[in-house]
Design goal:
- The chain is α+β, with helices and mostly antiparallel strands and 364 residues long.
- It is built from five helices and 19 strands.
- The protein has helices at 128-134, 173-196, 256-259, 273-294, 353-356, and strands at 29-33, 36-45, 48-55, 62-69, 72-76, 83-89, 92-98, 104-111, 140-147, 150-156, 163-169, 206-211, 215-216, 220-229, 238-247, 252-253, 322-326, 329-333, 350-352.
- The strands form four sheets. Strands 1-2-3-4-5-6-7-8 form an eight-stranded antiparallel beta barrel. Strands 12, 13, 14, 15 and 16 form a five-stranded antiparallel β-sheet that branches.
- The protein is globular.
- It starts with 28 loop residues before the first strand and ends in an 8-residue tail after the last helix.
């Protein structure tokens, strides 16, 4: 799992529409609260209005909810306590923001056009509001590292602190270019998720968001992303571990089904009904059998009545595991229901390269 599952809200207000007709077509607003520049997005459903805004100095989302009567909108943030009283005048919104400390600031908002100064390599499915989060930002190059004749360099986004590496030497040039493009997209997606997750006190809601040291194999590169977060409005705090792996001969991102598949027929198309059936009825039981072969003690079911025990012999926890590659082989991360999330992603659950067969393309 990953904090990009955290909500990346995008809501809108149709400027200039008659009262009561505020609705769907997306339109964002930019302007000022006092002297500070902001971007705001709102959506209305009959007499109710909701949305979010952020200051360009911090980029963290601030939630909004309230009511609309005629040309007047009254909104409040449950995170910061900010209260907004806005009046629509043509295609603009103006009014007042009152902070939780009773400071009053004038507000003037106009419809936002397309954001300028966007970085390269953005994920293609970001909304217009999410793209506004990233306007004018760039990565800062940091230290380079060389291991086994392969060189990587870390890059950091200063506002969020999100870091990720790029590959500079040790693999074919075309493959490095393709993988670096994918890594940049991953990093911008993680930056976007960081801005969208505001904590209950108004600060960042993501506590941890970092990549482990990548494994640089002869033909593969793989890394694990660890994150924990508590976003305001979410039901509970959460955490997750996600692996990313690439074939450095082709530059292609790998799927788990590329490396580990069972049965004489091809794996069904991902996310199809047949694929879900394959994962639960064939894939997960076969994974359990393999893990029992290589890790028999860890795969022993807990004793009866041990409700806190982690039952790794249950195929259900292996239906959709996290995964990554390493010198030792293929690591699989079990996924448990919330009450047993502490059992997630055990570090011992590794299948050696020899278990994957010669098609895996990495010497054991």
């Amino acid at each position: 799992m990953h904090p990009r599952h955290a909500p990346l809200f995008a809501a809108v207000l149709l400027a200039g529409a008659p009262a009561g007709a505020l609705a769907a077509p997306e339109q964002l607003y930019q302007g000022n609260v006092g002297t500070a520049r902001v971007v705001m997005a709102l959506t209305a459903d009959k007499a109710e209005v909701s949305g979010q805004y952020f200051y360009l100095t911090s980029r963290l989302d601030i939630d909004l909810a309230g009511s609309i009567q005629g040309q007047t909108l009254d909104l409040q943030s449950r995170v910061t306590g900010d209260k907004l009283h806005l009046v629509r005048n043509g295609d603009t919104l103006n009014g007042t923001l009152v902070t939780a400390k009773a400071r009053r600031l004038p507000v003037l908002l106009r419809p936002a056009g397309a954001p300028a100064g966007l970085p390269a390599d953005l994920p293609p499915k970001l909304s217009a509001y999410e793209r506004w989060h990233l306007t004018g930002l760039q990565f800062t190059a940091q230290q380079a590292e060389t291991r086994n004749g392969k060189t990587i360099r870390w890059y950091r986004e200063p506002l969020s602190g999100i870091r990720l590496f790029r590959i500079e030497r040790g693999y074919p040039g075309a493959a490095m270019a393709a993988v670096n493009h994918a890594l940049a997209r991953n990093q911008w997606q993680d930056v976007s998720a960081w801005f969208a997750c505001t904590g209950y006190e108004g600060g960042p809601g993501i506590d941890v968001a970092e990549a482990q040291t990548p494994w640089l194999g002869a033909n593969h590169v793989s890394y694990v992303w660890n994150a924990s977060w508590s976003c305001a409005g979410a039901a509970h705090p959460d955490f997750g571990t996600t692996g990313y792996s690439y074939d450095m001969r082709t530059g292609r991102e790998l799927r788990l089904d590329d490396l580990l598949h069972f049965g004489p027929t091809p794996v069904p198309a991902e996310s199809s009904d047949a694929w879900y059936s394959y994962r639960s009825k064939r894939f997960a039981p076969a994974v359990v059998a393999l893990l029992k072969r290589y890790h028999p003690s860890e795969m022993t079911a807990p004793a009866k009545g041990d409700e806190d025990g982690c039952d790794y012999s249950d195929p259900e926890v292996w239906n959709f595991p996290g995964w990554a590659l390493s010198e030792k082989g293929l690591w699989l991360g079990a996924y448990f229901a919330r009450v047993q999330r502490a059992c997630d992603a055990p570090d011992w659950a590794i299948l050696p390269w020899s278990a994957l067969g010669p098609h895996a393309g990495e010497a054991p």
